[in-house]
Structure formats: C-alpha cells, structure tokens
Design a protein that fits this description.
379 residues; alpha+beta; Butyryl-Coa Dehydrogenase, subunit A, domain 1; Butyryl-CoA Dehydrogenase, subunit A, domain 2; Butyryl-CoA Dehydrogenase, subunit A, domain 3; seven-stranded mixed β-sheet; 9 strands; globular
Length: 379
C-alpha cells in the first residue's frame, strides 16, 4: 500500500517480492530447522548483494541510501514468505539507527564500507530488549572511547553470526546506560549455543558473557536511553511492517487453500463462515498496510508530536497480526498446524515480532504512565 503513495518505492518492492519468491518460497520449512539444520548463508549473501542489509545506510557507507519507507516495503514483502530473514534485516537496521542517533558516524564508517562479507556487515543487537526496562545489563568501566564490559546479556540477536555487536551497558546507577561496540571474537567474550526460540528460528540469538571485554563507546556515557528512544520511534514502525507482511502472507495462503479445498460440492471459500473469516483477515491486513503507509509518510516529513501515534499503531498492528495468523491456521483446519504449510510458522513468528523492542505490555504501561504523569502522550 505504501507504493500507492510513493511510486519511487515500487522497484524496491518488486525486487523484495521477486527475491522472496525465488530464494525463500518453498524453503521456509528447511530454513526454519535451524539451529538443528544448516543456516542459509547463500540467502544471506544474496540479500547483502541486493542491498537489503543496508536499506537505510547512505551509499557512502555501503548502503542503498533508503529511508524508513524503503525498509518497510522490503520487510513487508520478505516477511510475507519468511519472517526470519526479515528479523535479520530489522536487527541490523536497528543497530545502524542507534549508531546514527548516537552520532557515531565515525564507527559506522569503520564497519560498513570495509566489510568483506555479509557477516562482517552485520551488527548483533538485543532486538527484544528495551535497555531502560532491563535490570541486568553488563557493567562498563573506562573513560574516553575505551571501556571494558563485564556481565551477562541474554538473547543477543545474530550474536553467533555477526563480527561485532552493539551492547547496552550500565555506566552508573540505573537507569543510566550507554551503547558499546564489541568485537565478538575478542578475548573476554563467551557465547552460548544458538537459542531455540518460539519463532524466527533462522534469525538466531545467543546469550553472551563478558569478562573484561574491550569495548568502544558509541555516543556518550549517559546517552544510551536518548539514542534508543530516537531510533525506536522509527523502528517500531519497521517492526509493524514485519507483522503486516506476515499477516498478508497468512491471508494469501488461507485464500489460496480455501479456493482449492472443496466440500459439499463447492470451494470452501464460498461457504459463508469461511468467507467471513477471510474477510476479517483481509480487513486487518489492509488496516495494517494503511497505518504503516501513513506512519512512514509522517516520519519522512518529520511531523511533530506524532510519535505516540506511531507506537500505538505498531502495537495495534502486532495484535491484529496475532489474531489474523490464528485465523489463518483455522482456515486450513488440521493442515494449519503442520510444518508442510506456512501457517504454523507464521503463528509463531508473529508473536516473536510482537516482542521486538520490548514486550507489548511494557510498551502499554510506559504509554499510560506518560499520560498520567504529563497529561499528554505526545512524543
């Protein structure tokens, strides 16, 4: 739907759609076996070649110079087929956004243009965490740009793949924290085996333990929260685009199945009960697409005071997606729970995507507390 407002995004949307059809369709079950099967490095390599891992990076840093609209159309089309690759694209973009928000362009210049492989281009990040709401963050000790980190960080997304990671760590008493760039192959960094999560299996995460690991400060010692808030305003919309894609993919598969499945002498799509479920799924997908399009346009025009609406829309889209993928399973009946079809994976993936940038209940609590304390929810 975003391409209806911005014709310039049509080529990148077509590229993402054709990429998903060629590289992901029919292979999601195989890819989803990770970490008990092989990781799809060949797909990651091709995603890097076409620029998906640098959608929002300036061309001078090795990206394609896109904006939030570019990222969202990529994520929507990729996640219609497989949310896991969308999770990798999202996590890398989130790390990049925080570096920009923190004013660490010099570090970005060191990483991205010099990357010799996709894995060197990736920056691991705890995508399911809002550091301000986390009690246990590593502790940072040092001065200037050079620090050492000690402690444990759970669920570092792409921590077993990327060459470096963007780690939040305490620089003083809570809630003060900052972000640090850590070489994941350096001394003092210990990584667990990949964690078998509910969904997005091929977007892996690990727990890491830091024992005096060397780190470089990203931004300022007390600037972590400000950088995260600035980046998450945009990236909440990107996360919603992932679930909008998952929702649309669930509807497409349910519609195709209901046209081919006959009962009582006619396709089940023509039975009123099934038609009503399909209509509900289609409406939810359309609402999600419209919300994301409007949010992207507002972000691109830097409309003031709309931040709370972007976050509210994101939370709502996640809830719609979780409802829609459940309906998608029901349309297929018993087949909906089988790995031979994509619906059970979408059911799991939608709930993982809903937790990006912090659990939905904590986002809702933060929103209502802001309203109670200030009388407004404007950001």
């Amino acid at each position: 739907m975003l391409t209806s407002y911005r014709k310039d995004l049509k080529p990148i949307a077509d590229l993402a759609q054709s990429f998903a059809a060629r590289e992901l369709a029919g292979k999601t079950g195989e890819h989803d076996r990770y970490p008990f099967g092989e990781f799809y490095d060949h797909v990651l390599n091709k995603a890097h070649e076409v620029g998906f891992l640098g959608a929002i990076l300036p061309e001078s840093l090795g990206g394609i110079g896109g904006d939030i609209g570019t990222l969202c159309v990529i994520l929507q089309n990729i996640c219609q087929v497989d949310g896991s690759l969308g999770g990798i694209i999202f996590t890398n973009a989130m790390a990049q956004e925080i570096m920009f928000a923190a004013g660490a362009m010099d570090l970005a210049q060191e990483i991205f243009p010099r990357a010799a492989s996709p894995r060197e281009f990736l920056v691991a990040f705890p995508s399911y965490t809002d550091p301000a709401q986390t009690d246990t963050l590593p502790k940072a000790v040092g001065s200037g740009r050079d620090f050492t980190l000690t402690g444990r960080l759970e669920f570092l997304v792409m921590g077993n793949m990327a060459s470096q990671a963007l780690i939040p760590a305490r620089t003083g008493k809570r809630p003060s924290y900052a972000f640090f760039l850590v070489d994941l192959s350096a001394t003092g960094v210990e990584k667990s085996d990949p964690i078998f999560s509910l969904g997005l299996h091929a977007c892996p995460a690990v727990d890491i333990t830091l024992q005096g690991a060397k780190a470089r400060l990203v931004g300022t010692e007390n600037g972590g929260h400000a950088a995260f808030e600035k980046a998450s305003l945009t990236m909440n919309v990107a996360a919603a685009a992932m679930n909008a894609g998952i929702m649309r993919g669930s509807f497409n598969e349910a519609l195709a199945y209901s046209r081919e499945r006959f009962q009582g002498g006619r396709a089940i799509a023509n039975w009123s009960e099934v038609s009503m479920v399909l209509a509900g799924m289609s409406i939810k997908a359309d609402v999600a697409g419209m919300c994301i399009a409007q949010a992207c346009l507002g972000l691109e025009k830097s409309v003031d005071g709309c931040g709370s609406q972007y976050i509210s829309s994101s939370i709502h889209i996640h809830e719609l997606a979780c409802e829609a993928v459940n309906d998608g399973i029901q349309i297929l009946g018993g087949y909906g729970y089988m790995k031979d079809y994509g619906q059970e994976k979408r059911f799991r993936d939608a709930r993982m995507v809903q937790a990006l940038l912090g659990p939905a209940p904590l986002k809702k609590l933060a929103m209502i507390r802001r309203i109670v304390e200030t009388g407004t929810n404007n950001i």
